[in-house]
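Exam prep: given the inputs below (a chain plus 5'-O-(acetylsulfamoyl)adenosine), describe the expected output before reading on.
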Amino acid sequence: MSNYHIKHLEEYFQVYRKSVQHPEAFWEEIAEEHFVWRSKWDRVLSWDFTKPEVKWFEGAELNITENCLDRHLPTKRNSTAIIFEPNDPQEEAQHITYGQLHERVCRMANVLKESGINKGDRVCVYLPMIPELAYTVLACARIGAIHSVVFAGFSSNALAARINDCDCKMVVTSDGSFRGNKIIDLKGIVDAALEDCPGVEKVLVAKRTGGKITMKKNRDYWLKPLLNDAYADNDAERMKAEDPLFILYTSGSTGKPKGMVHTSGGYMVYTAYTFKNVFQYREGDVYWCTADIGWITGHSYIIYGPLANGATTVMFEGVPSYPDYGRFWAVVEKHKVNQFYTAPTAIRALAKENLEYVEKYDLSSLKVLGSVGEPINEEAWHWYNNNIGHGKSPIVDTWWQTETGGIMITPLPYVTPTTPTYATLPFIGIQPALMDEEGNEIMGIQVDGRLCIKFPWPSMARTIWGDHERYRDTYFTAYKNNYFTGDGALRDEVGYYRITGRVDDVIIVSGHNLGTAPIEDSINEHPAVAESAIVGFPHDIKGNALYGFVILKEIGEARDRDNLRKEINQQITEHIGPIAKLDKIQFVPGLPKTRSGKIMRRILRKIASKDTENLGDISTLLNPEVVKEIMDNTL
Ligand code: 7RM
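Solution:
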């Protein structure tokens, strides 16, 4: 039996048991048999959640890019590592082989070194989804520089804050980016940001749009000529397993963004192992994750996890709606995608559109469908299952976080029977716990509580850059000796987990704890509803009452609003009970979303409570304009 590739349910339970009973022996075997190390560890794991301190494979040396690139060369030099699918479908896709990827990463590594970047330096990467983004991230890892990728949709202020927080010496960017029919002047945004970033010495600029930009003398350099002049070979730096690999910022509910620090060895082992099993990736498959590399999903499941397995990974520059709403399915057909991984927000947006956009394409290559980022509501799940998977491709609803580095609770396709809205079972090695408000673990089945993790796993973030205390306070103080996720979850009668949303989304109405997700699910099942978000607002008698923001589908637009309100509440009463009925229902054109597609309930909560003096920073929203529109029409 190979513990590396789990193929049926008994095997899952058997390997799971082993992984929690003998975690060190278990992870040692995975690490030893499936990766190359320059030197072996002295100790598999040492940990103390009170400090908190976690070390995996201490004493070992490796380079993650040797595992992602060099070791595949003997067998895969001419196999495709990355398929680059451009924004414009008329532009030709690029099939980048492992041989080519290796060479380009080596050249980029040499460029970074010659530009004065040393091991341990921070490099900010502010690039669109073009191959240079992959080259840069991997080149940093190759020389031991710490990459900090900032999603290239963030504003200059947000960019400057992230550059300064970790003292980046360099920014790698492009002249501009293509997104749908828009061209964005990325270099202009970088120039504005750098007015406030005295520590940045050099800017390397990839050419993408050919737009007019200004190049600052002795600071800005075009990348292409540097790459052409660089040596095509580069000896990977020996890195310690616990050396930082990257920093990735994630926004907290308050305060400045947190620079989560991930390290090399454990992150590699866990992302590779989860990739193999969660997507049941087989030799020759084509895998596509639609996330941006600016998010953890892109780091772990476009770059590191797939490449560590020698997989073919699609990198898509565009958006789901360009040139029309069929683009995802056109790409699936074109590249014969076998595993497709996206977010519920994208699924809901596409489900709103005419089915003809789906039916035009041959989706028979698909074997596995994935979902990540927020709870997938039941209606979206069925739409995905019926129209994309044709009932034949299991849906893996994967729960995890920037902080966890890799997928934590998930079905394994063709292994774990799935249930809509359930992330199902913990991945191998993961020990979840549900806690009550007093900090006691809730045992048994058919219970709900706050989701914690009791035992370290290899890819957990080790600290917040420059603020270890905040790391401890945020994740390790609420529940002693546990990592607190910030999410609520329930465990059903077979032990499956359902994530009910951030615990700050729990609303207590007349003493009843109501999770937002099940109520939104119920609303979304109404045929006229496209999407919804509910929040609580103060109520004299109930403590809190529920306020729903509802986006209608086209068919709903023509309907009588008061009737719709009645029908929605009727439906909630049937699904959940009268306690979950909404006091107010406002029909809105859109919901305020973060750039990774999560609804910003914080803003809706303020609007519902008529407390709009201080909405906080809304500049990082995907659609700040919708906020005013909603405010002007509050009930
Ligand atoms: C991977 C990612 C993390 C938060 C997390 C949850 C929510 C993510 C699911 C989910 C329900 C899921 N990282 N979340 N996946 N909720 N079901 N399958 O999204 O750091 O950006 O966000 O996202 O609340 O804590 S993240």
